[in-house]
From TrEMBL:
Family affiliation: Belongs to the prokaryotic/mitochondrial release factor family.
A GO term, aspect molecular function: peptidyl-tRNA hydrolase activity
Residues in Prokaryotic-type class I peptide chain release factors domain copies: 5-21
GO BP field: rescue of stalled ribosome
Name of this protein: Prokaryotic-type class I peptide chain release factors domain-containing protein
SUPFAM superfamilies: Release factor
InterPro entries: Pep_chain_release_fac_I, Pep_chain_release_fac_I_sf
Amino acid sequence: MQAIRAQGSGGQNVNKVSSAIHLRFDINGSSLPEKLKEKLLQLKDSRVTNDGVFVLKAQNYRTQEQNREDALARLVAWIKAATIEQKPRIKTKVSRAAKA
């Protein structure tokens, strides 16, 4: 995690204070289960680099602490979303009305 200056308008606070958080999470170097690592790396997400590093920028709040908490919460939510198994699609049958 690294503190950087936030983008956009906002006056003195944005121009002087490093309140945004740049979070880098190495998927390959983490202690996550191998199956989950593979699933995270296969996701079509532009935030995952070719080296397997998840990069996230949090700058929604005025303070560095709130942005740090936001970045960690978003990382956890991203990992939890990857653990959900997709249900297999059940083929539907053509109705009688459509056949006629």
